[in-house]
From TrEMBL:
Recorded family membership: Belongs to the CFA/CMAS family.
Ranges of compositional bias, category Basic and acidic residues: 7-29
Protein name: Cyclopropane-fatty-acyl-phospholipid synthase
GO terms, biological process: lipid biosynthetic process; methylation
Keyword Oxidoreductase: no
UniProt keywords, alphabetically: Lipid metabolism, Methyltransferase, S-adenosyl-L-methionine, Transferase
SUPFAM superfamilies assigned: S-adenosyl-L-methionine-dependent methyltransferases
Lineage: Bacteria, Pseudomonadati, Myxococcota, Polyangia, Nannocystales
One of the record's GO molecular function terms: methyltransferase activity
Domain Polyketide synthase-like methyltransferase: 39-301
Native source species: Nannocystis exedens
Region (Disordered): 1-29
UniProt feature coiled coil, ranges: none
Amino acid sequence: MTRVAHTRAEREANLRSAADQREHERQAVAAHYEHSPEIFSLVLDSRLAYATGVYEHAGEDLETAQARKYARIAAKLDIRPGQRVLDVGCGWGSNLLYLAQHTEGVFQGITLSAQQREEALRRARAWGVADRVQIDVCHVEDLNLRPESFDAVLFSGSIVHMHNRPAVHQMVGEVLKPGGRVLISDCYFPVQPRGDRDSAATEYIFVEALGYCRLIGLAEELQLMERAGLDILHVEDLTRHYAQTLAHWIDNVRKHRRTIDAMAPGFAAVLQQYMTVARMSFARRTALEYMILATKGAPTVDPGAWPIAQKGGRS
């Protein structure tokens, strides 16, 4: 498959060796997330989801929308007692710990940030699920996992930071058991370019703010998944939901600017600037947000019968 480089960051990544790119991601991406969790607690929901929520209407609050998103992921992954789940780019544990609290699965998460790992494990202990949770600081391509050792794999707001997508999907296809599920919730470019992908604004988000991002087309992601032996079950467009989520985050940054700057001078401006550009991109659909569910072999659930919650509580 011919790899098309959409941005300067991606073209530069193509010039690096695979090992050099992994090291670049390990350092550049982690830098954003190594800021104090206290800062992000002022901006995000109470579980610290750094990804889109799911809204029923324009006036809905962030906490409710993120609770609905957690329930949506739980319904789609359908974790049964004793099943093993890998959360790649688990952040501060938002989805991983929700699933641990609401299912009887066993969970392994990885992150590039020591700060995120420490906070996620602290929450796991506080919420009584630490005995079923393991979190490591690790790049996804450095994982050494047994074939067919997981029942589900989750990427929420994380695969965008991974340049070598073919290797990532190949790993997923190998580690999933027959009937295993993979869920991705992340950002994509439309195939037909809309706007300037080499703009200073794009560069600011992809490099200055977030370290490294690679947006590809939805069809390319799906093809890579299929090449890894996965069958696509369901795709839904959450683009407008991400624009709404970002609006809430921006309001929170503005509200807490002085507190954030006291802890990390200048970081409030970074957050507000990149989130503002991102919100405009999703509102204009120059960038898109999708949730993808795929399975290895025959699905264990009926897509037409998912008990997806329509109203999110504050769990």
